[in-house]
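W.,

You were right to be curious about this one. When I first looked at the sequence I had no strong expectations either way, so I just let the prediction run and decided to look at it fresh. Below is the sequence, 264 residues in total, followed by the output.
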Amino acid sequence: MTKDNQLTNDKVENNAEKYLDRIEGRNPINEALRAGRSINKVWVVKTNQRREQRLHELVLECKEQGAIIIEVEKNVFEEMAETPRHQGIIAQVSPKNYVDPFVLLEELKAKGKQPFILILDNLQDGYNFGSILRISEAAGIDLVVIPERRSVTADAHVAKASAGAIEFVPIARVTNLATFIDRIKEQNFWIYGTEVDRAENYQKVDYKGSIALIIGNEAKGMSENIKKRCDFLVTIPMHGQINSLNAAVAAGIIVFQAVEQRKS
């Protein structure tokens, strides 16, 4: 087989694997291993020199776990990468297991816990989603809920942006957010929505009990259908010239305020 033919075959394999669940970067792959996810294949750039030590050890760990290691030419590897921060390694992993939200909530309540969940209303930006997962992991959020359609999903961009947090935060995908909210309201959840105008200062709200905080779409905020289901609308007072924060920053500010209050 000629080098050109081999390169063509590698590109064909790239196209075949394009839609499988992949993660990129050393830390996300390391966290996937820690979380027990099965890694099926690993792609690295072909080289005649010894790889950087950390990358070398990670490749060996994946191989010992049972992954197939595939070396590809640098230009092919760059075409495969979905983010510029791949750090020289891409892995095909077993799909992210979304949880059944109601089963998880029952388990939490059986342990005497009052759950704190985040609901993302048609979030579109993978970096925001990844950042929210990092916040959720750090704050001990019990569940993150996203809709099945017209929303960002747990892909390679999100995995990278989450710095590994995606492996430890339960995520549920639901067919209809409004229906989901109605069901948890029947289970005595209080629903909080983030809003820019005509809302209460987030620092003056009671976050005790079983609660859900809704983070709206980056451009449009919450949809009206979701907003009308909120028990409270909260806002972050701002004093600069720009009167809006991105979704992840707003989520972080409110989440940690709520977490601190819920400790007392």
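Here's what jumped out at me. Confidence is low (pLDDT under 50) at residues 1-20. And, maybe more interesting for your project: The chain has two domains: 3-93, 101-263.

Coffee later to discuss?

I.
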